[in-house]
User: Fold this.
Amino acid sequence: MINMKRRTFLKGSVAAGAMGAAMGAGLLTPRMVLAAWPSAAFEAKTVDSALDALMGSHALESSDKISIRAPDIAENGAVVPVSVTSSIPGTEAINIIAEKNAAPLTAAFKLGKGAEGFVSTRIKMGKTSSVIAVVKAGGKLYSTGKEVKVTIGGCGG
Amino acid sequence: MATIKIRAKLQGDVTTVKALIQHPMDTGQVKNKKTGKLIPAHFIQEVNCEHNGTNVMNALWGPAVSKNPYLSFKFKGAKAGDTLKLSWVDNKGESDSIETQVS
Assistant:
């Protein structure tokens, strides 16, 4: 009887130990928390989890009303010009995502009253990947993507 | 020294705003080549633009926006001479803002 209990106890502590290690690994990245800035979305490692954290959903509908202007080949990944135009009526937000960056979400633009569905900026890309524009309009998410070849990555040292 | 250069041009009824901000946009993943230590993250997190006091554009940025960021957007409803205010805040709490007139 006593022996049995000892077995259970050992099993339990091993399981708890494994979980502790997993949690420790997840918490190794230092983070700065600011009230308004959605750190979870910008630190997310996948496109889906970034969108879940930012928009509350990653259900995307692909749309041909969004166009991305970006180079086919970017020689310098540190500066990739990206312009997104959305002709979807009621465009409220445009998000720019570099799919294979360590943290894919790059920029999230919220458009106020009177703003046209257009934003342009320059982003860093670690390697060749698809640049995805996610547009929010009328409570739904629309997206389109464009492949950009990167010759020299712009995210590491 | 001002860190922002901005231009707002009215064409028809659409105003195109173009802005350049001086900022290192350090990702926190790059090592200083001399010391071998990581350069701490230092990047703009939020950019806001107001036209006559109403918000027309609010951008949330991650560290993957390029160094010395460029930003452009368009909006309707402004007249020549209207005031446009652009401001930014970074992850260290530093900030700057500029006002310009629509031309």
Observations:
- Residues 2-26 of chain A form the longest helix (25 residues).
- The two ends of chain A are 60 Å apart (CA to CA).
- The domain at 39-152 of chain A is CATH 2.60.40.2470 (Immunoglobulin-like).
